[in-house]
Amino acid sequence: ERNNGTTCVPIQIWAFRQSDGTGGISQDALIRGLAYLNYNYLQAGIEFYYCGDPVYANDSDLYNFDGTAPDNDTESQLVSASG
Description:
The protein has 3 helices and 5 strands; from the N terminus they run βββαββαα. With 83 residues, it is an alpha/beta fold. The protein has one domain (2-81). The strands form 2 sheets. Strands 1-2-4 form a 3-stranded mixed beta sheet. Strands 3-5 form a two-stranded parallel sheet. β1 and β2 (6-11) form a beta hairpin.
């Protein structure tokens, strides 16, 4: 999508939290992160925007991800699949 010579890029946030819903990134940190990202891409004519609300996954195993731990079968498979 283009807007006055700027390429607008939608992004979707997927955030992992503890199984009880605690932890994870705050809305304030997401806002600051997007502002920082856009500041760094300003000269390139690229602007990022959130295309929806963050999707939260409440899963302590994923929140405490350690791809090298032998008990993290699913995560280890993801790491292997990604290269």
